[in-house]
Amino acid sequence: MRVLVVEDEVRTAALLQRGLCEEGYAVDVAVDGPEAVWRAQESPYDVIVLDVMLPVFDGFEVCRRLRAGGCWSPVLLLTARDAVTDRVRGLDSGADDYLTKPFSFAELFARLRALVRRGARERPALLAVGDLRLDPSSRRVWRGPSELQLSPKEFALLELFLRYPGDVLTRTRILEHVWDFAYDGVSNVVDQYVAYLRRKIDEPGGESHLETVRGAGYRLRPQAPAKGG
């Protein structure tokens, strides 16, 4: 297995490299953000061990750039920060797991094995279909250059459609994902919120991004509809 260690502190990088080599990994080391992005984009790594505090730009930014560039190698963040906000920020930037310093090598190896088993699968931090873009971390939505203002339920509904473009989502499935299990409101709430969402994401005078599939549910077109189509 090939692993990229991104760590600017020389002693820590050497310890990680030695420990991983003894475990049977082939190890490359990067010492700052730009080198990490370059190495990860140039070579296929089974897993990346990424320190948060780096020169030039930090591990959060490394993650964002890798995911934006289509690099889906599993990322384990190493951080001395144990605040919940920092852990959330790391996961939202595209990391798969995190480990707080100081840590044991036994736990590091176990987490790396778990990440390698998952493999490199696409999991973008920013969801996009056609000219629609949604950032789950900042909870912002754009259509083309224009930012849209959505209610929490409208945001959750659009996020669900963007995660499954082209799939027909039944009303039951939408209810289960956007409303809680105990929801006991009006029966046509899904239709109401699809209508609200359509009014906000449709191009002026154009066809809806959201299709009604008669007798089944709703579907987000995989690409933005052509005008007049």
Automatic annotation (TrEMBL):
Asked if DNA-binding is a keyword of the record, the answer is yes
List of residues that carry 4-aspartylphosphate: 51
Q: Which PROSITE patterns match?
A: OMPR_PHOB (PS51755), RESPONSE_REGULATORY (PS50110)
Instruction: Point out the DNA-binding stretch(es).
Output: 124-222
- PANTHER family reported for this sequence: REGULATOR OF RPOS, TRANSCRIPTIONAL REGULATORY PROTEIN TCRX-RELATED
Q: Which protein is depicted?
A: Two-component system response regulator
Which UniProt keywords are given for this protein, alphabetically ordered? DNA-binding, Phosphoprotein, Transcription, Transcription regulation, Two-component regulatory system
Q: Which residue numbers delimit the Response regulatory domain?
A: 2-116
Among the GO molecular function terms of this UniProt record, one is: phosphorelay response regulator activity
Using the record's annotation, list all stretches that form the OmpR/PhoB-type domain. 124-222
GO terms for biological process, alphabetical: regulation of DNA-templated transcription
Please report the organism this UniProt entry assigns to the protein. Streptomyces cellostaticus
Hey, what's the signal peptide range on this chain?
A: none
